[in-house]
Amino acid sequence: MMLSKGLKRKREEEEEEEVVEKETLTVDTWWLDSGPPTAQAPPVVASNSLFDLSVLKLHHSLRQSEPDLRHLVLVVNTLRRIQASMAPSAALPSVSSPPPAPMETDNLLASSDAALSASMAGLLEDLSHIEGLSQAPQPLPDEGPPGRPIGGAPAGLGALDLLGPATGCLLDDGLEGLFEDIDTSMYDSELWAPAAAEGHKPDSENGLGKEEAPVLDEAELDYLMDVLVGTQGLER
Amino acid sequence: MGVSVLSKSMPVQENQPWVSGTPADIISTVEFNHTGELLATGDKGGRVVIFQREPESKNAPHSQGEYDVYSTFQSHEPEFDYLKSLEIEEKINKIKWLPQQNAAHSLLSTNDKTIKLWKITERDKRPEGYNLKDEEGKLKDLSTVTSLQVPVLKPMDLMVEVSPRRIFANGHTYHINSISVNSDCETYMSADDLRINLWHLAITDRSFNIVDIKPANMEDLTEVITASEFHPHHCNLFVYSSSKGSLRLCDMRAAALCDKHSKLFEEPEDPSNRSFFSEIISSVSDVKFSHSGRYMLTRDYLTVKVWDLNMEARPIETYQVHDYLRSKLCSLYESDCIFDKFECAWNGSDSVIMTGAYNNFFRMFDRNTKRDVTLEASRESSKPRAVLKPRRVCLGGKRRRDDISVDSLDFTKKILHTAWHPAENIIAIAATNNLYIFQDKVNADAH
């Protein structure tokens, strides 16, 4: 399963998937053996595995750069049906499904729209420039629920803001885990924070480093400023 | 009904006929033009290939009106949407021919976002004998020109030229699933998951939105548009289908925004067949008006249904395409096969309907005799001029020779796209990256 945005696949997720695969084999048989499904309450185990499978599909669908809306909507609706049938058995301890699903599915659907909203606001702006439409009024701009960032907020972060705590199985350690993989080495330049860098060195070397560093740093700073502003030679 | 058929299998890739091609060669749409003389296919790589039927000639009795490649061109290229940082696929979702109004042919082809109008013209003569230019087009030395001549048109090898005449872009936020040319021959519609737009064929910088089912709050989204089509005769009527299995017939005269349907066609859920997957299998993947305009044909996962425009409560006919899959829905859900979108087609006289299935099988149902047949599109069983043998899928128990058991079906071999010649019993079947054209020679000119 492809993951994006540097998310690490958690070991628990892998195990969960294996369990789902094993259980779907038995679910198949169940569908064949039992009479019309409405005649008897479906086994909780089978419902759970179907639920898990649906949640996995939903997550997979949302992770696509551009989700297939039909697929997404059908999976969400199926998930709601399964939830509705599972409600009476929610108390069972063996249930290892993700946190309250109705909120989660709504949040997930909405969060995909935050990304959609952000980019759609821009797209609709473009559309209105291009087309002199005499179309019927549409809900513009596409804000979704109040408080959702549009336009200015980068699409990716907007979606992730909402994913946060509600999706335990995606981000076990909350938002902090998201930034683990980001490479910030270009900002950790010794030029800009010599004291901090040298603080890591053993004390014996410190003295030497501190005496020499300021002189070098100033010269290099000047050089850098020249480069940033544009070398004087070029201005002629 | 044309049960006994002759066949000619024609892989789309001419230079590598019997080697399975790259994913880009997967055929994504098939469409005959209004006379049936031309057959267009679109593929995943954004290419369009047009076949032309050879006129039956007494000199070559074996050719028997076969289809040969007429033109190939690149319709769509992959694009990059910088706003969303997404690549827009070049796959051709639909092709629709315009009615022919002069010597040229025109068609509309669309990918997920952009519709293009292509003009196809023939050139079989060229002028020769210019006064100022020589044969290669270079200017002549005027001192060598002593007399004037009139250029004459001389025959040349047929050249088919294709040019993009219009590009209808930026009309859709979501993925385009259908296009349909209006009977007025001036407008056409394009539908995506949530909206339907009306375009004028000559105007590319604007379109009218005629259906919008996007909820104010995306969290409330429970239904999407899956297919739509204009009525073949009434230019104000069109139908669109939804993921919940309903059909809405709309009248453009009633309002500018056709969110309120004129008629809603929906069959109540059968309580004995209820399951978690009821909604998914009821999702309509294709809708087609009959040639008469009196009926509609819909395809959902397990059935094809015929609806009478005068009766909204339920279809007048329901045909089981592959009911043996009803007990396999869970594993089909797991493999995503349950989301496959099959198309359906009417024959010219609206008496037979056809649709594809798995294992490269396709099915035909005769509405009058109520007989049906399962046939297979494969290289092994389709030598040129061979007669196709009916196939059977058995659930278990008594099994005849040549029967296939449900568990041996190959779900990767799906026939999603099929087309029927508008007048004759000729069908085009797309099986992944191969195109098969079958002809019924027994009743060649019947209907």
From TrEMBL, chain A:
Location of the SERTA domain: 43-90
Regions of compositional bias (Basic and acidic residues) in chain numbering: 198-213
Protein's name in the database: SERTA domain-containing protein 1 isoform X2
Compositional bias (Pro residues): 138-148
Region Disordered, annotated ranges: 1-20, 134-153, 195-214
Annotated Gene Ontology cellular component terms: nucleus
Annotated organism of origin: Dipodomys ordii
PROSITE patterns associated with the record: SERTA
A Pfam family that the UniProt record links to this protein: SERTA
Domain of life (superkingdom): Eukaryota
TrEMBL record, chain B:
Keyword Lipid biosynthesis: no
Record keywords, A-Z: Repeat, WD repeat
Gene3D superfamilies xrefs: YVTN repeat-like/Quinoprotein amine dehydrogenase
GO cellular component, one term: protein phosphatase type 2A complex
A GO molecular-function descriptor: protein phosphatase regulator activity
PROSITE patterns: PR55_1, PR55_2
UniProt cross-references to InterPro entries, sorted A to Z: PP2A_PR55 (IPR000009), PP2A_PR55_CS (IPR018067), WD40/YVTN_repeat-like_dom_sf (IPR015943), WD40_repeat_dom_sf (IPR036322), WD40_rpt (IPR001680)
Family to which this protein belongs: Belongs to the phosphatase 2A regulatory subunit B family.
Stated name of the protein: Serine/threonine-protein phosphatase 2A 55 kDa regulatory subunit B
The organism's taxonomic lineage, starting at the top: Eukaryota, Metazoa, Chordata, Craniata, Vertebrata
Gene behind this protein: Ppp2r2c
